Every structure is written in structure tokens, then in C-alpha cells.
Amino acid sequence: MTSEKKIIAVGSDHAALPAKKKLMTILEQRGFEVVDKGTYTEDSCDYPEFSHAVAEAVESGAASCGLLMCGTGLGMMYAANRHPNIRAALCWSKETAALSREHNDSNILVLPGRVPSLDPLEDILAAWLDTPFSNDERHIRRIRKIER
Length: 148
Ligand code: RB5
Known about the structure:
Blueprint: E1 7-12, H1 17-29, E2 33-36, H2 47-60, E3 65-70, H3 74-80, E4 88-90, H4 94-102, E5 108-112, H5 119-130, H6 137-146
Parallel strand pairs: 1-2, 1-3, 3-5, 4-5
């Protein structure tokens, strides 16, 4: 995925708000137009609201990709993957992030916000952004089989 003026929709709950803000800065530095679907405060909130908002933006084409964060990333991933043609990947390493792009053409990166250090998240985000889909026939076939 290249970083020329693409729109990325981002969302988090309260648990990942500081981490989301940090990664938003990085996305802006890389030239993305960042559309923040919330949450905007550290008040306790319900993660599915923001997950659905980001998934809808990607599903509709309003954004070319998305970033979702909550405490673990799990709740965000569950909700986003209820949407057709959304492949929201909770990644825990540069390798899984790259493979989620190369093999699965993931269109939303999901990350945990309750982590001891944000540094690994920055590396994972970079790997995800910098890895294109392989366009390999077997991966296209497998992705089609996800949508029944
Ligand atoms: C909020 O406490 C927490 O449940 C949420 O951030 C997330 O981890 C859910 O999957």
C-alpha cells in the first residue's frame, strides 16, 4: 500500500485513544488524509460504534483503508469483520501485518492500545502500509471464498 494522498479512516475506544493519536500523527506525516471516526475523549465508550463507522467508510469506498484500536484490538476486529468485503486484521508483529496484506489483502489494520510501549505498533503499522497485496491467483481465490 503506497502512502500518496489516500484517505484512511481511524477509530478507537477510550482504552486506545492515546495510542491512536500517536499513530494518526505518523499517518499524517506519511501523507495520508486521516478521517477520525472517534472516540474523541477518554470517557468510557462502546468500541463497536467506532468499529462499524470505520468499516462502513472502507466498505463504501469513502476511505481506502482503515485503522482500528481498542484495549486488545479484539472487539474492534469482531465488529469490523461483520461487514461485507472487510478484512480487518489484528496483527501482533511486522510479519503478520505484511502477510495480512500480501496474502489476505487486509483493508483494516487492528492494533491493541493497552501495550507497554507504542514503538512496536509503529513498526507494525509501517509494515502494513508498505506491503502490497500479491495479486496472486490463489490468494484471490481464497479471499473470494471468505465472502459466501
Ligand atoms: C474496554 O475496557 C475494552 O473492553 C476494549 O478496549 C477492548 O479491549 C475490547 O475488545
